[in-house]
Amino acid sequence: MVINYFSLYQAVIETIETKKPGNGSELFNSLTDNQLIKTQRSNGISDKDLIDSALETVDNLLDDNLVKGKKVVTKDGNLYTFKGLTTSGHQYLASLEKPEFKEKVKQFLKEEGIPINPQSISKAIFQFLF
Questions:
Q1: Residue-wise burial string across 9-23, b where 16 or more C-beta atoms lie within 10 A, e elsewhere
Q2: What value does the CA radius of gyration of the chain take, rounded to a whole number of Å?
Q3: What is the DSSP string of 98-109?
Q4: DSSP symbols for 69-100
Q5: This prediction's pTM
Q6: By C-alpha distance, which of 16, 13, 6, 12 is closest to 124?
Q7: Distance, CA of 67 to CA of 65 (rounded, Å)
Q8: Are 5 and 121 contacting, i.e. CB atoms less than 8 angstroms apart?
Q9: Which of 65, 67, 92, 111 has its CB 3.0 to 4.6 Å from that of 61, i.e. a possible disulfide?
């Protein structure tokens, strides 16, 4: 089964916007109630794959300056803190309300022969927003 990365990217950024988690643990607690996550799990996607993909998505959101926050690498694992969305993050969410935006991003990735994953979605979003 394949993870729907575009929807995962959207679910993570919307959760940060609406639930306002202060750290990674709070984010994942909020994501467990997300319908996309429930559906992906019922379709056979393992928790490990979902967690790994969500963490990659969070890293990209931070790297791309769509989310205000920090990642601290420790010997016990990564710690995340969040302070909401940046202006760019709000612009991205506003663009998602336009159905043609998602289609443009998907079409761009398809035309370029780029697989859809959190990193490629992130790059494509920047292509269209900035």
A1: bbbbbebbeeeebee
A2: 14
A3: SHHHHHHHHHHH
A4: EEEEEETTEEEEEEEEE-HHHHHHHHHHTSHH
A5: 0.81
A6: 6
A7: 5
A8: yes
A9: 67
